[in-house]
């Protein structure tokens, strides 16, 4: 599974760094490092929504507060 987080200026202001750090921690805690590839990219063109994250090319809007729920629903549930 490929997970990409926007690290462009708009998403950075909305907390992309915290989103990346939390996803790194959750992937490690759940021992999914061999199943989930986490990467960063610049603007995805969805700046008005929040921190843009794609999971295998499907767009999601994530905030630092919603990372846990996002991880459980869109990453862990699909690779476990």
Give the SSE map:
Blueprint: E1 2-6, H1 9-13, H2 16-29, E2 37-41, E3 51-55, E4 58-62, H3 67-79
Parallel strand pairs: 1-2
Antiparallel strand pairs: 1-3, 3-4
Helix pairs in contact: 2-3
Quick description:
With 80 residues, this protein is an alpha+beta fold.
Quaternary structure state of the chains depicted? single chain
Order of SSEs: EHHEEEH
Give the tally of β-strands.
4
Q: For the CA atoms, what is the radius of gyration?
A: 11 Å
Strand content: 25-35%
Total count of helical runs of at least 4 residues: 3
Largest sheet: 4 strands, mixed
Overall morphology: globular
* Low-confidence runs of at least 5 consecutive residues: none
For the residues shown, what is the average pLDDT? 95
Based on secondary structure, the structural category is alpha+beta
As laid out across the biggest beta sheet, the strand order is 2-1-3-4
CA(first)-CA(last) distance: 11 Å
